[in-house]
Please model this.
Amino acid sequence: MSTLRFNAIKESLHRKPVYIEENDRRSELFGKNVFNEAAMRQFLAKDAYESVMDAVQNGTKIERVVADHISAGMKEWAITKGATHYTHWFQPLTGATAEKHDSFFETIGGGLAIEKFGGSQLVQQEPDASSFPNGGIRNTFEARGYTAWDPTSPAFIYGTTLCIPTVFVAYTGEALDYKTPLLRALQAIDNAAVAVCKYFDKNVKKVNASLGWEQEYFLVDSALAYSRPDIVLTGRTLLGHSPAKGQQLDDHYFGSIPVRALSFMRDLETECMLLGIPVKTRHNEVAPNQFELAPIYDEANLAVDHNSLLMDLMDKVADRHNFKVLFHEKPFAGVNGSGKHNNWSLGTNTGVNLLGPGKTPMSNLQFLTFFINTIKAVNDNEELLRASIASASNDHRLGANEAPPAIISVFIGDQLTNVLNELENVTTGKLSPQEKTDLKLNVVGKIPDVLLDNTDRNRTSPFAFTGNKFEFRAVGSKANCANAMTVLNSIVAKQLIDFKKEVDLLIDKKGMKKDDAIFNVLREYIKKSKNILFEGNGYGEAWHKEAKKRGLSNNKTTPEALKARISKKSLALFEELGVMNKVESEARYEIEMEEYALRIQIEGRVLGDIARNHIVPTAVKYQNVLIENVKGLKEIYGSSYKKYAAEQLNLIEEISGHIATINATVTKLINERRKANALMDIDKKAHDYCNKVKPLFDEIRYSCDKLELLVDDELWPLTKYRELLFTR
Ligand code: ADP
Ligand code: MG
Model:
């Protein structure tokens, strides 16, 4: 065994759980390090407080003079909490969070110094951001980027730094981050949904999109993780034979949480409480050493920030517990991968969940309006929705035989399927203003009863209705939810705008009554959206055939999937809503394609290195042992030695075969990579990495994994799957 592997196993076996003391109630800890309403009331003058609240609730601008007051209060609060620095905290298109700390400390001459934090520092900063991905935006416009305060997500203290959530944009206004388009999409859906809500309730002034993410992850002992160059450099194992026992016994799911993992979770949850991240649920997932964490849902922008912050926090807390967190969607072949279910709904300022079925016919018509419009939006934009979750790592789930498939479909359950069928058949024939509405509203009135036992669930669906929300399950565990949330909220916003136009047209031009008009448009939508509804097994081969017949896309790889981002239709949709202009859409496409190529490039390099520097030399070493053995047997037994050396001779030959395959394929891999790198066109480059470079990984891995089975365990240099997955 290599010293590294040996020491790593030894170290991990001697780990003790870190004891976590919890003296305070969590409700008391909650939000302690957040500049929330309570803190603002205490540290801000009344008009400053009201101006922030107005910005949060109504999107009004905060005056510069008021910003000075706010920053002063924020600074005082932060200093009482032990903060020494502040930072604009943002989410560039790398997917991670970015921060650059500045001290409050300032000299004022005469050898004196003070703590200072002015309104201008709060409102706007100009980080030297030339190294963040921008898809050519900054080159094109020769403009620099700046960060600007997002008052809708409260500032918080992380360590000893006051973090101010910000957007990151070019001076010319183009978004360079995840948050900006998300905020625009949330504004778009707010406007569109409020307009539709007015049909039902004139008091609705604001609609918030909500998000409750469920974060899956793996915990691997840090010594073991760091003994694997592939985990360190790519976040996943590029090779490794599956262990004799994996997840086939289903003994990990919801099982009792291992002690070390639990103390990590408690520590993490305490930190989450302080930062106002309302985490609630924790449990074991399907695969060994795989877990899930879920919060109480929140307004989507805040929830996205919380998820980004959480992922950063998890890394840091894991360090204290000698764990490495793997967020990769598929860290281990042959066992379950990780996702991040995005539970999504729409809620009004009057406290109504628009995707929660109501008790009266009227509120049910409202529910059906939002329910059916969402289905129609997904139906019309399934390819764009697929693109919103595309990444090299998520391809391992979506494109492979794992949940959910790359085909987007919507699951609504038996009862709602029946309701839609009934509604569709209430009357046949053309729309007419003379149609009676009573019957229809009766049908609508049936819904609350049938929904009470809405327990059926289909775990294979990428987009499922679960009682009072939709659950977008195809989002990657590693992804920033903003991407998926921007697209989902945009397509539903666009759909609601179109819906309102159609309804108004029927009312104004055909003199239809409002409920009639709404109902008639919805019925047409039910007919038009049938293709996207699927209740069966999403993993099955039959569905792939059926989906193809229906004309649904099945984009298995990221380069294929991303095309939908820059289709005429998508560009127009984002442009119309003011979410992204053409330049921004195209820049994002380019960044994501580039990132894809880079990920595969790095994986290819790492795999080539490990195969050549770790695996082949080990195989040769073992082969030499066998050769020595055969030589010895020959010495003893003379010409009849083969009788005693049959197994050894076979092994020698097999090993040579695998070495030859590895050698030839790694050489091919290097050549294909060179060719791909020489391509200037990012489109071609990403496709080549996908179709010519990536397939070679499997061939190399196959031989390496076979060698793992053949070579003496004592010699094997890489920590094995059973050690990575089952060490507690
Ligand atoms: P599971 O899918 O594991 O069975 P649940 O469906 O009960 O779990 O809840 C998952 C997540 O859905 C939680 O984070 C919860 O806060 C969130 N959720 C519940 N209601 C809503 C809503 N109206 N909008 C967004 N998320 C919601
Ligand atoms: Mg769920």
Q: What stands out?
A: The pocket of magnesium ion (ligand 2) is lined by residues 214, 341, 471 (CB under 6 Å). Confidence is low (pLDDT under 50) at residues 428-443, 445-450. The chain has 27 helices and 17 strands.
